[in-house]
Amino acid sequence: MHVPDGFLDAPTSVATGAVAAAGVAIALRRARTELDDRTAPMAGLVAAFVFAGQMMNFPVGAGTSGHLLGGALAAVLVGPWTGALCISVVLMVQALFMADGGITALGTNITLMALVGCGVGYAVFRAAVAVLPKKASVVAPAAAAGALVSVPVAAAVFTLLFAIGGTAPVDTGKVLTAMVGWHVVIGIGEAVVTGLVVAAVMAARPDLVHGARGLLPARELEIREAAA
Amino acid sequence: MSRRAFFAVALLAALLVAGVGSYYASAHPDGLEHVAEQAGFADSADEPKTGDSPLADYRTKGVEDERLSGGIAGVVGVGLVLVLMGGLGYALRRRRTSEPAEPVEPAESSR
User: Fold this and answer.
1) Partner residue opposite B39 with nearest CB, options A52, A92, A170
2) Fewer CB near the last or first residue (10 Å), C or N of chain B?
């Protein structure tokens, strides 16, 4: 869903740039509460994994493909604020080095995939966890639900931006139907990948999953030998 | 699984996906590109401003072999993102260990 330069006019790109800058500034402050010595390397890994996942386009029919956006995945694994920073770093590297997503559209892409992606993905995840039984086994399906919803919502927000500042005279209703329709299908792929990856991390190291906090059984105290 | 082993496995998975798996990724336009073509606003896209980057379009400049060219771009990208976000994570983290096995300084635990 990487928006290239030129799709949106300059005022809209400036506005989304301001939204992205404000969002990243808040995330930089709030991420401090999510990061410690144990989770800091996890943030780097999650960003690296999302970068890799975004290269892996999967076919969704009719000569179209989709790829992981990773907002819900990152938000559940490292927390929503750190997750938004992870996606922002991925988008920055893609725009600067890979020519994937425009430079003037970087604010638009951060707004769509980092802020909307992580925000909606995490909100739906928390809502799902709240209504499901208080068990660690709900974390992966709840993350998948967040992923499923986050993709079409980001597509709808793109359409809103296109309606406001699109440079081509195209009917908004047509774009909205097509964008949301295709991205519901892509969202299913997003949900499958997110659910599988979160389930794998939950199986290996549930203590490193931000979204599982409060759902894991209390660890018993144990005597450990100090590392030499 | 130790944390070190977990991180090693996860990093290897990311490197394999970006360095090897991406060769097999679908080359079809993604959802937005497809809609832009169908609805008729694909032409409003400008030429990428970073199109002459050595890794533009996930191809390594000067490497002819398709598989190698994409693989190198993927691996370099994973490394860049890992270092940037890992570094940011370390810079932002709370300077307090939460390893349960290690003693917590009384001054810090009592805020």
Assistant:
1) A170
2) C
